[in-house]
Amino acid sequence: ETGVTQSPTHLIKTRGQQVTLRCSSQSGHNTVSWYQQALGQGPQFIFQYYREEENGRGNFPPRFSGLQFPNYSSELNVNALELDDSALYLCASSFTGGYGYTFGSGTRLTVV
Amino acid sequence: AQSVSQHNHHVILSEAASLELGCNYSYGGTVNLFWYVQYPGQHLQLLLKYFSGDPLVKGIKGFEAEFIKSKFSFNLRKPSVQWSDTAEYFCAVNGIYMEYGNKLVFGAGTILRVKS
To answer: How much of chain B exceeds pLDDT 90, in percent?
Structure first.
């Protein structure tokens, strides 16, 4: 079984720029969630996608947006980057109706 | 809002010592509970999970956790730690009727360092 893969692994962006992070779900999973893990903190839920639509969102501003594609892969887009957006971004896939999650290794985003 | 509290942010133990990491959550409904481990430079890995049934759950690598509903707790234990257990440990919860049911709420994590 394939796991969850995320790209890129590391990224450096300048404040005000836009960034796109990518995630390929585990085979058989139809739901993808994104989490932000700031240094020294636990992962915080950003949003979740099911059937290509957002069906849950945490306390993040609208400049955080996402997409889910028919093959269940996903993108996280962040506009107007701020220094506080520097974090590890985790993607997790799951199957709706079940409660198993598979996490990717994450993308380390640094905003300078 | 739902929250998860982990009692210690840093724990240092010698090899063969016993481990107990505390986790409490705030959510009054039916919950699923998880412990994840993150080894340095690696992704989050599931140690164990509780959905229902026996409140004493056994996971991988000799870890176990006990769900005490009356105390809203799900503490992680291991009788004898090894140097290779050095990692960060996260407790997480989601609720059957929690808003966005598949959403995981994580604690802040506990960094465990095992001295050889």
So the answer is: 72
